[in-house]
Amino acid sequence: MHGRGFLLVAVVAAAAGAGCAGADRADDGVRSPSAGGSPSGLVPDDLATSSPPATQSPTNTPTPTPDPGPVTLAFAGDIHFEGHLRARLDDPASALAPIAPQLGAADVTVVNLETSVGASGAPEPGKRFTFQAPPSAFTALQAAGVDIVTMANNHAMDFGADGLADTLAAVAAARPGLDVVGVGADAAEAFAPAVRDVRGTTVAVLGANVPDDPGADPTGHWAATETSAGVATALDPAPLLRAVAQARTVADIVVVYLHWGVQGESCPSPSQTTLAAALSDPATGADVVVGSHAHRLQGAGRIRPNGAYVAYGLGNFVWYTQASDATAATGVLTVTVDDGEVTGEAWAPGRIGADGLPVFASGAAAQRLTADRDALRDCAGLTALR
């Protein structure tokens, strides 16, 4: 399916407090028969005890380990099914069909689902925008080629604890075809990564919400705790850093998708750059850090020579309204990772149309949109891949 590997049987748990626990690997229980024995009565005693001719001695030529080759990871920004987009879920299998070729081309595709999922609960009091989609939203995303969804954002609990209970039930029903990160029954589950195997290469993806201005959108009380369900919230980055470091111990590639930054800003905030540096520090071990929330594109590139790849803002992707040309600019980012290092990036630029779906550009238009995005690298303090 879209060139992907199979979902690993165990999803690695990552602790939100004092530490994180990895998934145990069980022995297969198969024993090799003891050397030199043969079943009674099947081989004459004189042959069973004689040595084979030297020319028939078995060789012990080692079997070479196949090279798994590079892995491609695709990312897109904010998605919801509000307004006129809701009708698309009447037929979820084809809801996002126009953009499925771009979403389904990579080995692993990750997006941000900017909505609560379910039918229960009441809108969060005092919140200006509250979004809720039926569970068929997960069906639509999987059908379009999405593998992993992060819901660590400021809309995951727009319909309160009851709405979140619906969401978690829908998440369980969506597996194993689709994984959801960033929300959970407790902090350990919310910070746990989704883990995928791609031709022998293990990819771990985590999600977290990092409110840059909690006072402007007070959702801090949504944070999952040791004993309560909620969102993976990283106002205190320590639990996230621990979760990423734990994922590093079991994965070849570690990806962190963050909901962060200041809405309307095309340059990353100081809190974004500080957290990106901490996540990509070798002691933590993230290879790729991407994000959304500003509703416009932000710079992307390598954070330092031979360091992690960071894409600060992927903008809107499937969105019901565009306030300006900047918020309509979108695209799919695909990075190539080979032997643990990001070796390439590709940007498929587009603009969100009147129907809420992106329309991908080509030719001179694509070159202009890509150049505009490349220019954002300067204020982000990132360098282009070479």
Give a description of the structure.
The model is unreliable at 1-58 (pLDDT under 50). 47% of the residues are buried. It contains ten helices and 18 strands. The protein has a single domain, classed as Metallo-dependent phosphatases (Purple Acid Phosphatase, chain A, domain 2, 4-Layer Sandwich). It is of the alpha/beta class and 386 residues long.
The gist of it:
The protein is α/β, with parallel strands linked by helices and 386 residues long. It contains ten helices and 18 strands.
For this entry, give a set of tags.
18 strands; single chain; 386 residues; six-stranded mixed sheet; eight-stranded mixed sheet; Purple Acid Phosphatase, chain A, domain 2; alpha/beta; disordered N terminus; 20% helix; 23% strand
- Average pLDDT score: 86
Rg for CA atoms: 24 Å
Q: Considering DSSP H and I runs of 4 or more, what fraction of the residues is helical?
A: 10-25%
Put simply, the count of helices is 10
Q: How would a crystallographer describe the biggest sheet?
A: 8 strands, mixed
Low-confidence parts, pLDDT < 50 over ≥5 residues?
Answer: 1-58
Number of domains: 1
Element layout with pairings:
Elements: H1 45-48, E1 71-79, H2 100-103, E2 108-113, E3 116-117, E4 132-133, H3 136-143, E5 148-150, H4 160-174, E6 179-181, E7 183-184, H5 187-190, E8 194-198, E9 201-209, E10 230-231, H6 238-248, E11 253-259, H7 270-280, E12 288-292, E13 300-302, E14 309-311, E15 316-318, H8 325-328, E16 329-338, E17 341-352, E18 358-360, H9 363-375, H10 377-380
Parallel strand pairs: 1-2, 1-15, 2-5, 3-4, 5-6, 9-11, 11-12, 12-14
Antiparallel strand pairs: 1-16, 7-10, 8-9, 13-14, 16-17, 17-18
Protein name: CapA family protein
Region (Disordered): 22-70
Organism: Jiangella asiatica
